[in-house]
Design goal:
The protein has 630 residues and is an alpha/beta fold. It is built from 21 helices and 18 strands.
Length: 630
C-alpha cells in the first residue's frame, strides 16, 4: 500500500455520491450559494488549520509543514476522516469543530432556560447535544414561593425540542439531541410513551437510564413493585395501574412506605416487569426509547473526582460530563485490507497503526484549534481533552477478508480490530503526554490512580455511526453491516443517493455474474439469499443487516465495547415481522454482554428510516433520512 507520507500531493479520488455530499454540505459557498471550494482545497484547509497547532507546542515551520502533509494525506486517501463539524468549520469563521456536547438541566426555571439558550448557541454552530432530565421535579410537585405546581420534565423536553426546530432552519449541519431519564423518576411512564406520536420530538433520541441494581431486581423478581423517587425530596412513591399515563402527576401517587411487597403482584401498582414491558413495547413500535446502563458508563468514567456522567451525545457513543464536548474521527478499516479476492487478503497493521497515531494527534490538535460556543465548555474541554477515535468500513473490511459478519470469526475480527485501535491510541496519547503534558485533570483520574500511566486525553476511543463521512470515504458506516448491497439513501433534506457496495461490485465483476438486472433485484429485495446465479460462498459472505439474527448485531457491538474508552453506536436491526419478545431478549442480552447501551430498529416502524430499498415507496414509506454523522 502507498505510504501516507507519499499521499501529501494526491488529489482525493471521490465517488459521485461523495462529491454530491461535499458540495451540498461541506465545501465553501459564496453569498449566492455557488460552491467556491474543491474537495482538495477542503482537505488542505482542514490540514493547514490543525497543523498550525503544532507551533503552539514548539514545532518549527518544517515540522508544521510535515504534519500538514500527513494530515492531508490521511483525509485525501480516505483512510481517516474527522467528524463533520471539523471538516465543515476548520479554517472558517465559525470555528466550532466538535460534534458532541452535554449540557445540564438544573431544577429551576432560570437554569432550564439558560440551558435552552446554550443549546441554541451549540446547534447554531452545528453541534449535537445530550441532556439528562433527572434533576427536574416531577409534574405536580410543589414550587416554593408561589404555591404553584411543576409542569414536569416532559413539558420542558418539548420546549428544548421546539428551540432546536427554530435554530436549525438556517444551519449547515442539523444537530440532533439525546434526552435521558432515570427509570426511577416519577414521570417515567410519560417518558416511555413520549414518542408514540412520531410527529413529536422529531429532533430527539430518547433513552432510559437503568442501574445495575434495578436490572438485577428485574431479573430476580419482575413482579416487585416499581418504586419511583422524587429527585427534589428523595421521597419514594408507587405508580397505581389506574393512572392516565399521559396526564398523571405526583399528587396521584401513594407513598411507597407501608405498602406490602406483594402490592404490585396483586394488581394495584406498576411492577418492574410492567415498566420493562412498556419500554420494550415502545421500542418495538417506534425504535425508542433505547436503554443506557448508566452504572457501566460511570464504571469507565476516567475522572470520577470531577463528576458523574449522566448523559451522552445524540448517538450514544460519547458519555460526557456537564459542559463537556468531544471531537470525533474514524479510521477506515477497509482501506487497510489489501484483497485480491474473497478470503485472499492481508491487513496492513503497520499502516493502520500509523494512521491511528496520527489521527490521535490530529484530534488532540482539534481541541486547541476549537472555538467553543461557551466559555464553560472551553474550560471543561481543556481540562479533560477527550477525543473519540473510532472506525468505519468494518463491514467492507470483513468482505475483503472473506469473513461473514454473523460468525464467530467475524466477532473475533471486531475484537481484534478495536483492541488494536485502543492499544495504538493509548500509546499515542502517552507519547503526547510526554511531549505536551497530561490533561489537566489527570491528577486524581483513573489514569493516575489505577493505570499509573501518563495520558494526554481522558478518553481516546469511541465508535460513532459515521453517517455522511462514510459516504465521503465510500465505505460502510461505522461497525454496521451493510443494509443492502444496493439501496437508496436519503440525506440532506430529501436528496436520493443510489449506493452500490464497491467490494461486492468488484467481486461480482471478477466472478462474471455482475449485471444491471442483478443490482436492481438486490436493491428491491435487499439480500442475495434467493439469487441462485450468485455462487453460494459469495452469498454466505455478503450478508446484509436483515440476513441474520439480532444476536449477531449485539455480539459485534459487545466485541467492540470490550476495547473502547467510551461507548459504541450500533443499531440492532430487526425485520418488520419481529415480535416484542424478540426485542425483549435483545435488551436483556445487551445487559448480559456488558454493553453500555442498546438501540433497536424494526424495519418499517417509521415512515422515514435510515435506509430503504428501492421498492420502499410501494409500501407507503419515504426514502431514508439519515442525519447521524461521525
Amino acid at each position: 500500500m502507498t505510504s501516507l507520507d507519499d499521499m501529501n500531493a494526491v488529489a482525493p479520488e471521490l465517488s459521485a455520491n461523495a462529491r454530491r455530499v461535499l458540495e451540498d454540505r461541506y465545501l465553501r459557498k459564496d453569498e449566492t450559494g455557488r460552491v467556491v471550494e474543491t474537495p482538495q482545497e477542503l482537505f488542505d484547509r482542514v490540514s493547514r488549520t490543525l497543523a498550525e497547532v503544532e507551533a503552539i507546542h514548539g514545532a518549527d515551520d518544517g515540522e508544521v509543514a510535515l504534519w500538514r502533509r500527513r494530515f492531508y494525506g490521511m483525509m485525501a486517501s480516505r483512510r481517516f476522516l474527522p467528524s463533520s463539524p471539523t471538516l465543515m468549520n476548520a479554517g472558517r469563521q465559525a470555528g466550532t469543530l466538535s460534534a458532541c456536547f452535554v449540557l445540564p438541566v438544573p431544577d429551576s426555571v432560570e437554569g432550564i432556560f439558560e440551558s435552552i439558550r446554550d443549546t441554541a448557541l451549540i446547534q447554531k454552530a452545528g453541534g449535537g447535544t445530550g441532556f439528562a432530565f433527572d434533576e427536574l421535579r416531577p409534574a405536580g410537585d410543589s414550587i416554593s414561593g408561589n404555591g404553584g405546581t411543576a409542569s414536569g420534565p416532559i413539558s420542558f423536553l418539548k420546549a428544548f425540542s421546539e428551540a432546536t426546530n427554530a435554530i436549525q432552519r438556517g444551519v449547515l449541519r442539523r444537530g440532533a439531541n439525546m434526552g435521558m431519564m432515570a427509570v426511577d423518576h416519577p414521570d417515567i411512564l410519560k417518558f416511555l410513551n413520549a414518542k408514540q406520536d412520531l410527529a413529536c420530538l422529531t429532533n430527539y433520541n430518547l433513552s432510559v437510564k437503568i442501574t445495575d441494581e434495578w436490572m438485577e431486581g428485574l431479573l430476580a423478581d419482575p413482579d416487585a413493585a416499581h418504586v419511583v423517587r422524587n429527585p427534589r425530596t428523595g421521597e419514594r412513591f408507587l405508580l397505581p395501574r389506574s393512572l392516565d399515563i399521559h396526564q398523571y402527576d405526583l399528587r396521584s401517587l401513594p407513598a411507597a412506605d407501608g405498602q406490602g411487597p406483594g402490592a404490585a403482584a396483586a394488581g394495584r401498582f406498576w411492577s418492574r416487569g410492567d415498566v420493562w414491558r412498556a419500554l420494550v413495547a415502545n421500542a418495538h413500535a417506534t425504535g425508542e426509547p433505547g436503554v443506557v446502563f448508566i452504572d457501566r458508563i460511570n464504571q469507565a468514567n476516567p475522572t470520577p473526582h470531577v463528576g458523574r456522567m449522566e448523559a451522552t451525545n445524540p448517538c450514544g457513543e460519547q458519555p460526557l460530563l456537564p459542559y463537556e464536548a468531544c471531537n470525533l474521527g474514524s479510521v477506515n478499516l477497509a482501506a487497510f485490507v489489501d484483497s485480491t479476492g474473497p478470503g485472499v487478503a492481508t491487513v496492513d497493521w503497520e499502516g493502520l497503526g500509523q494512521a491511528i497515531r496520527w489521527a490521535v494527534r490530529l484530534l488532540d490538535n482539534v481541541i486547541d484549534a476549537n472555538r467553543y460556543p461557551l466559555p464553560r465548555i472551553a474550560e471543561m474541554c481543556d481540562a479533560n481533552r477527550k477525543i473519540g477515535l473510532g472506525v468505519m468500513g468494518y463491514a467492507d473490511a470483513l468482505f475483503k477478508l472473506g469473513v461473514p459478519y454473523d460468525s464467530e470469526e467475524g466477532a473475533e475480527w471486531g475484537r481484534r480490530f478495536m483492541g488494536f485501535v485502543q492499544e495504538q491510541a493509548h500509546a499515542a496519547g502517552e507519547e503526547l503526554a510526554e511531549q505536551r503534558g497530561c490533561f489537566a485533570n489527570w491528577p486524581g483520574s483513573t489514569w493516575q490512580t489505577v493505570h499509573r500511566r501518563k495520558m494526554r486525553n481522558a478518553c481516546s476511543t469511541a465508535v460513532a455511526p459515521t453517517g455522511t463521512i462514510s459516504i465521503i470515504a465510500n465505505c460502510s458506516a461505522g461497525i454496521e453491516p451493510v443494509f443492502s448491497l444496493a439501496f437508496v439513501r436519503n440525506v440532506m433534506d430529501g436528496q436520493r443517493l443510489i449506493e452500490i457496495n464497491p467490494v461486492f461490485e468488484r467481486v461480482a465483476r471478477a466472478g462474471g455474474f455482475h449485471s444491471d438486472e442483478l443490482m436492481e433485484r438486490i436493491a428491491r429485495v435487499g439480500s442475495l439469499a434467493e439469487m441462485a446465479e450468485v455462487p453460494e460462498p459469495v452469498r454466505r459472505l455478503f450478508v446484509c443487516a436483515h440476513d441474520f439474527s439480532p444476536e449477531w448485531h449485539l455480539r459485534q457491538q459487545a466485541a467492540f465495547q470490550e476495547s473502547c474508552d467510551s461507548a459504541v453506536s450500533k443499531t440492532i436491526n430487526f425485520p418488520r415481522e419481529a415480535t416484542v419478545e424478540q426485542v425483549d431478549r435483545v435488551y436483556r442480552r445487551a445487559y448480559q454482554l456488558r454493553c453500555k447501551g442498546v438501540t433497536v430498529y424494526r424495519d418499517g416502524c417509521r415512515d422515514r428510516q435510515p435506509m430503504a430499498l428501492v421498492n420502499a415507496d410501494a409500501r407507503g414509506e419515504l426514502p431514508p433520512g439519515m442525519q447521524a454523522d461521525g
